[in-house]
Every structure is written in C-alpha cells, then in structure tokens.
UniProtKB/TrEMBL annotation:
Residues 53-219 form the Svf1-like N-terminal domain. SUPFAM superfamilies: AttH-like. This is Oxidative stress survival, Svf1-like protein. Residues 221-429 form the Svf1-like C-terminal domain.
Length: 431
C-alpha cells in the first residue's frame, strides 16, 4: 500500500465511477489447472510486515466426537512490532466442556526449514517421514492448566493443495495494479490428516486421536478491507476409508470487485470466491472453485458454494444469520496421475442450525466469537477505530450427512450417503 490512507479509496475516474475491475480472484484459475500441488515453500512462514495476518491452524474431530484446534497467529500491525499468539479450542458436545485459550507468546522465531517455529510457550516441528508422509508435532505449555503434545500427519497419497500452481497459487489479489497490489489473500490446505497424542487440561488427560485438516492462510491487508463475510466448512467421516469435504469462501467488501452498473449507489460489485475439495479413502478426489457475483460469468465446469437459508436476525450481534445452511461441491475427478478427468465428482451437505437467537436455540453452537474482543489490543483499536466494524464468527459442530457421487475410477465409485461430523464457521465482518 502506498500510504496509511490509500485503503480508503477505490480506483475510479473524476466522477467517482469505477473504471475497471480491481480484484483478481484465484477462483478464476482455468478449470483444468485447479489442483496446485504444494511445494515446501508454500508452508513456510513469511512473517510479512505491513498490515499482514498469517495463521496456521490444525483442526481435529476426536474419536469421542469432541472438537479440538490449535492455531498460531502472526499479526503485523504497520508501525508496531508483530503480535504473535497461540490459541487452543476444545469442545465436547456430550458433556458441554469447553476450553478456549489465547495467549500472546514471547521470543517467536521460525526455525531452519521455515515450516517449523517456536516460542517460549511452544515448539512446532515439521517433518517429512521416510514413507513420504508429512507431519506437524505441537508441544505447548499454554498455561499452568493446559498442555498440548499432539501431532497431525498427512499421508503421502492424500495430497495437500492450493488453487493453481506456482508461487502465486492460492492467492487472490486486491487492487488494479497487479505489480503493486493493495493486498492479497492466500490459502493452502491439507484436507485430511490424522491427529494423535494427548491434551492435558486441568490435570486431566484427553486422548487426541482423530481426523481433521490443516490450513495455512495469509491476509495481506486489513481484514475489514478483504471481505464482508466468510464461510468455512470442515466435514470429516471415517466411512469409505476416510472422507473429507472442505471449503473456504469469502465475499469482498464494497471497495473491491467488478465495476457496478451505471447509476448504482456503490462503485463496486462485490465478488464471492469459493474453493474446496473432496477426499476419499486416502486420496484427493477433486478440487473445486467458483467466482460468483458477475452478471456474465465465464463457463465453469466445477463449482462449490455455501447457501445461507431462512436467515433470522440475531439480537446478540445484529446480523441476519442462517437457520439452515447448505454446501455443494462439483468438480472433475482426478485420475491416477492427479490430472482432471472428464468424469465429475460431487457432494452436498444440508444442515439445520436452528435459531441464531437465543444461543440456546442454535444447534451445536461451539461459540459466537466477538473477534475484536480476542485480537491483540493494538490491532483491535486500529481496526475498530478506522473501520467501525463489529466482526462475529459463528462456530458450530454437528453430526451431518454427506451425499457423495463418485465416478468410475474414483475410490468407492458410486452414490453414497455417509455419516460424519461438520465443523463450520460463518463470519460477518460488516453488513
């Protein structure tokens, strides 16, 4: 960005009319090039400056149906020193036990391979095993009553991915000048991992055996400028040798997108970016992508979407939140060489969430997160003062069924209805 005030304006002519698109979504990647294999550099910590937030997050659905997640957050705050946090969340839907910890760490550094990192409060070690599997091991002493010693392993055949190949794979770019962008968003995934180890909370041990996913994400600009809303889905099932259906979606804020129609009250037409994948039986089956919000969208042979249905206003947050939510994936099945074939794979999940208010009426509610109450103070003051936003994240954990259609040549070809667990987030940044 050229200066502290540059983010306040969008590219327009003297009459204030947008003169061209100023957002390049990664979901516009050609349909035959969606799968971008991960390189070692893709999972390295960048620790960028400016106003960049970088996270690595490990999720698991444990054997008893509980949910657990570890996250490292590296937040650069313009002129200030970076703020680094470790967070941990645990929720047991059977007992109602919930653990949420967020701690600022000291003496953070990335280690020799830049994929491992450490601080006084934790060590995270990345390792490639002799059989080609890859593994993160997390050892953390977060507080006196919470210690972690667990690991996440991706089997070699179940590929990690980004959308599109090369160093720009997985990256959506904001701004009308791609050589000097206003900002960017990056996502890179391990869609299916096996967790193991232990969590010690309040002197009691929790077995951490389970199935989950990992995501490395970077937001290279203020979060209120990136998106007005986000959706995230992480479905895991043990059937058919292990099934994972994951999805990440965001809708740009009003300053970025395509030019609006003449006479419109806004200069920009926001766009929605959706990326996702389906894995079955230890193999990545398909990668999906779609860009929505255009009047004349180019033909697409794959798609993925989130549909908020029967929304109701939540008096706690002021947002219209869904009482039902639906996810869909359709994409070219990958062949034995991980190239897109002519055959299609598809999946669908429908979920009844109940009422958003009161919270006791929301099915499987893990948390309704007031984001500004959780981020570091200096970031909170900057974002809240400048943007006037009030971001909330709804997190739910529910048993769910996935309808899965797999073509010939895919693992477990045919039509299936499978039981599993869905952890999802729907986030509102501003109206």
């Amino acid at each position: 960005m050229s200066g502290w005030g540059s983010w306040l304006s969008s590219e327009s002519n003297e009459a204030g009319v947008a003169i061209g698109p100023n957002f390049k979504p990664i979901s516009d990647t050609p349909q035959d090039q969606l799968l971008g294999p991960l390189s070692p550099e893709d999972l390295q910590w960048t620790c960028a400056g400016g106003f960049t937030t970088e996270t690595q997050t490990w999720y698991s659905i444990l054997e008893d149906g509980s949910f657990a997640a570890s996250q490292i957050i590296h937040s650069a705050v313009g002129l200030w020193y970076p703020q680094i946090q470790i967070t941990f969340k645990y929720f047991n839907p059977k007992t109602g036990q919930k653990i949420w910890k967020s701690v600022n760490v000291t003496h953070f550094s990335k280690t020799y391979d830049k994929r491992s990192c450490k601080a006084d409060q934790f060590t995270i070690l990345f390792d490639t095993l002799p059989n080609g599997d890859e593994k993160y091991t997390i050892d953390a002493n977060i507080e006196a009553d919470l210690q972690l010693s667990w690991s996440f392993t991706r089997v070699a055949g179940n590929l990690g991915w980004k959308l599109g190949a090369g160093s720009e794979g997985g990256k959506s770019v904001f701004g009308s000048n791609p050589t000097a962008p206003d900002g960017y968003v990056v996502h890179r995934f391990w869609p299916r991992v096996e967790s193991s180890g232990i969590i010690i909370a309040g002197g009691k041990m929790i077995e951490a055996q389970g199935q989950g996913m990992f995501v490395h994400a970077i937001q290279g600009m203020r979060p209120n400028l990136v998106a007005s809303k986000w959706n995230f889905a992480n479905f895991q099932s043990k059937e058919l040798g292990g099934v994972a259906a994951i999805m990440m979606e965001f809708t740009t804020a009003n300053d970025y997108g395509d030019p609006a129609d003449p006479g419109s009250a806004v200069a920009r037409k926001p766009l929605t970016v959706n990326v996702g994948s389906i894995s079955v039986g230890g193999k990545l089956v398909t990668v999906t992508a779609s860009t929505r919000g255009r009047d004349h969208a180019p033909a697409s042979s794959s798609t993925s979407y989130v549909d908020h249905q029967d929304t109701e206003q939540d008096a706690d947050t002021g947002y219209n939140a869904p009482t039902k939510i639906q996810y869909g994936w359709t994409g070219h099945a990958l062949d034995a060489s991980n190239k897109p074939s002519a055959n299609k794979a598809s999946a669908e999940i429908k979920l009844d969430l109940g009422k958003p208010y009161p919270s006791t009426e929301t099915k499987g509610l893990v948390d309704k997160v007031d984001v500004l109450a959780e981020i570091p103070y200096v970031v909170r003051k900057m974002v809240n003062y400048v943007a006037g936003t009030k971001p909330y994240i709804y997190q739910t954990l529910n048993s769910a069924k996935i309808s899965l259609d797999l073509p010939a040549g895919s693992p477990s070809a045919g039509s299936h209805t499978l039981e599993g667990t869905l952890f999802e987030e729907h986030t509102f940044i501003n109206v």
